[in-house]
Amino acid sequence: MTTIAAPRTPARPARRKGVNWEKWGWIYMRVSGVILLVLIFGHLFVNLMVGDGIKAIDFAFVGGKLSNPFWQWWDVAMLWLALIHGGNGMRTIVNDYATGRTIRGVLKVAILAAVTILIILGTLVVFTFDPCPAGAPADLLASFCPAN
Q1: Pfam families, from UniProt (predicted)?
Q2: pTM
């Protein structure tokens, strides 16, 4: 009779020294998930329910919102938490299903690179967004820009 190993049996025994990164990753997923629920539902409530609702969402609305430091930090917190949360989830999937050590390493590096690049670009967009660029034609500027 052939014996089949129990699911999720580690290929090698777990380390007993140092920081348990899997435990902290697990805790991060739970904490960031709860914080993300608050951030996302707050974002949706302000964008869809407050004021004129969905009819009010246009370039001027987004430009006005991103010119406020409170909403900049709100959106950056949502971006960072969501990308790190998703990257950690993808890392867990790679650990569960990628069998070869090399392919697992390549996939984890690709996930890290994607998350890092998206965090950098998203943060730059939020903090450098200018709804009233200098030299733009007046008919293309939002109504709250000083050129109008």
Answers
A1: Sdh_cyt
A2: 0.77
